[in-house]
């Protein structure tokens, strides 16, 4: 299997790329890492047009069976709407995996009918026990191995970093959450910011269509003063106010334990024009 790797946000670490190349061989996969992954243009892995072009190239290549995001950071939102408006025909049957900032692109590609999933990315190999994280994605892509999936999925599901989700709600990228569960996770934010993001997300009309919400791992910064409630209580609060069931915890997060969550397949045969 040939898996194309692109960096729609920030540059990929060379050591991570080399390590994951060897892990891919263990599952019978061949990583095709686009040179764009190693470009640097300020914060980004190259200018917007170069990052968008590399992603389109991988999606259009008939020899590439899946596209894997190299890492998160920031920048996918800058190219996601343009990709959605002009998606290569060859993209239709590819799987795409990423998370964190890549959630903007997962949302866009899901709307276009592609099979996308939240899951560990290439740069995650640098985390402690990172080999197991990236093997989870590689085995799902190359062998359709479900062992790396979030274990308590029971129906259609979406998974997003909360900041990314809050930013895309109310835009053309917002998914149709009808009848699905939503899994959220976060990293490096204070609890008051989590409260603020949940206010925005739960206030959107599309949120009310959810079957339930579940909470993944959140590595939080300390508030400058005690917030007065624990994380799970904050999530329950906004679920209750919006009338969406709280379904408990989920096994996702910015860590090596992060699990794969395939989005529901919808509009699979839809026109991409």
Would you write up a description of this structure?
It contains 8 helices and 10 strands. The protein has helices spanning 14-26, 48-60, 80-85, 103-111, 130-143, 162-168, 191-203, 231-242, and strands spanning 2-6, 30-33, 66-69, 95-98, 115-118, 157-161, 181-189, 212-220, 245-249, 261-262. With 273 residues, it is of the alpha/beta class. The protein has a 6-stranded mixed beta sheet with strand order 2-1-3-4-5-10, sandwiched between helices. It has a 4-stranded parallel beta sheet with strand order 6-7-8-9. Residues 269-273 have low confidence and may be disordered. It folds into 2 domains: 2-150, Murein tetrapeptidase LD-carboxypeptidase, N-terminal domain (Rossmann fold, 3-Layer(aba) Sandwich), CATH 3.40.50.10740; 157-249, LD-carboxypeptidase A C-terminal domain-like (Glucose Oxidase, domain 1, 3-Layer(bba) Sandwich).
């Amino acid at each position: 299997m040939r898996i194309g790797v692109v960096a729609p946000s920030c540059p990929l670490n060379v050591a991570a790329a080399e390590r994951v190349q060897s892990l891919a061989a263990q599952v019978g996969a061949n990583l095709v890492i686009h040179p764009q992954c190693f470009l640097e243009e300020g914060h980004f892995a190259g200018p917007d047009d170069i990052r968008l072009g590399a992603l389109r190239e991988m999606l259009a290549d008939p020899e590439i069976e899946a596209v894997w995001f190299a890492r998160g950071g920031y920048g996918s939102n800058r190219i996601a709407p343009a990709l959605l408006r002009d998606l290569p025909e060859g993209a239709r049957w590819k799987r795409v995996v990423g998370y964190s900032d890549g959630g903007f692109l997962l949302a866009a590609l899901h709307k276009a009918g592609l099979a996308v999933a939240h899951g560990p990315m290439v740069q995650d190999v640098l985390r402690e026990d990172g080999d197991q994280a990236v093997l989870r994605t590689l085995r799902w892509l190359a062998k359709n191995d479900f062992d790396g999936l979030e274990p308590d999925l029971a129906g259609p599901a979406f998974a997003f970093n909360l900041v990314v989700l809050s930013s895309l709600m109310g835009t053309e990228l917002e998914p149709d959450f009808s009848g699905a569960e939503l899994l959220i996770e976060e990293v490096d934010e204070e609890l008051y910011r989590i409260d603020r993001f949940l206010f925005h997300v739960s206030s959107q009309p599309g949120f009310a269509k959810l079957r339930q919400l579940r909470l993944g791992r959140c590595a939080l910064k300390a508030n400058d003063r005690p917030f007065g409630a624990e994380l799970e209580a904050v999530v329950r609060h906004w679920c209750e106010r919006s009338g969406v069931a709280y379904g408990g915890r989920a096994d996702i997060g910015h860590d090596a334990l992060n699990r794969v969550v395939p989005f529901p397949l919808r509009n699979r045969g839809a026109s991409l024009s």
